Amino acid sequence: QQQVRQSPQSLTVWEGGTTVLTCSYEDSTFNYFPWYQQFPGEGPALLISILSVSDKKEDGRFTTFFNKREKKLSLHIIDSQPGDSATYFCAARGTNAYKVIFGKGTHLHVLP
Amino acid sequence: EAAVTQSPRNKVAVTGGKVTLSCNQTNNHNNMYWYRQDTGHGLRLIHYSYGAGSTEKGDIPDGYKASRPSQENFSLILELATPSQTSVYFCASGGRGRDTEVFFGKGTRLTVV
Description:
The complex is a heterodimer of chains A (about 110) and B (about 110).
Chain A: E1 4-7, E2 10-14, E3 19-25, E4 32-38, E5 45-51, E6 56-59, E7 62-67, E8 72-77, E9 86-93, E10 100-102, E11 106-111
Parallel strand pairs in A: 2-11
Antiparallel strand pairs in A: 1-3, 3-8, 4-5, 4-9, 6-7, 7-8, 9-10, 9-11
Chain B: E1 4-7, E2 10-13, E3 19-25, E4 31-38, E5 42-49, E6 56-57, E7 65-67, E8 75-78, E9 87-94, E10 102-104, E11 108-112
Parallel strand pairs in B: 2-11
Antiparallel strand pairs in B: 1-3, 3-8, 4-5, 4-9, 5-6, 7-8, 9-10, 9-11
C-alpha cells in the first residue's frame, strides 16, 4: 500500500518561532505534494503545494521543500502564530491522478 | 469559493442498521472522494469517483458502498453499520488535473452504538 509518513505526531512551539514538519514517501511515481491545514470542526483546506519538478515553494510565512533523491518533503512556518495552531497533513498524488494519499497528520500548538 | 456540503453533520446509528451519508458539490468537479479520519490514522480513502455513474474502491472499502448518481452528488452507504465504523467522514471534490486542489466538506461525525 502506498504510504506517506509524517512526523512529528505533535509539536509545540513558541510564538515567533520556526515550525518544521517533515514527510517521507516510498512511491517514486508520486509527483504532486500538497499540504493541508485543518482546524477543529472543519475539513482540511489546501495550504501550499509543490510539484516534483521543483525543490522549493514559498507562500508568505509558509515554505515547502522537496527532495526527490531522498523522497522527503518538509513544511517550514516562520514567525509562527497562535492562529497557526491546527493539524497539518502532507499528501501525495501520483500516476493515478484520482487518488490523494494523506499522512497521519501533525498537531501543531503555538503558544503565545 | 468551492463548496462541498455534507449531510447530516452528526449521526447516531444502531449496530446493524443502514446509514447513508450524503455529499453535494457545486464546483462542477469530476472527482469526488470519501475519507474517514481517526486519531492515529489520519485521512484514509474509502471510495472515490471520477464522474457520474462511476465508483472506485479506495484503500479501506470493506463495509462501505458508494453511489454517484450525478456530477453533484456522491453518497457513502453503510449497509450494516458496526461500532468500528464510528468516525468522522469527509467528502471532497477535485478537478481532473494532477495538481488541482481538492476541496473538503466540514465532515460528518458518525457514532454507531
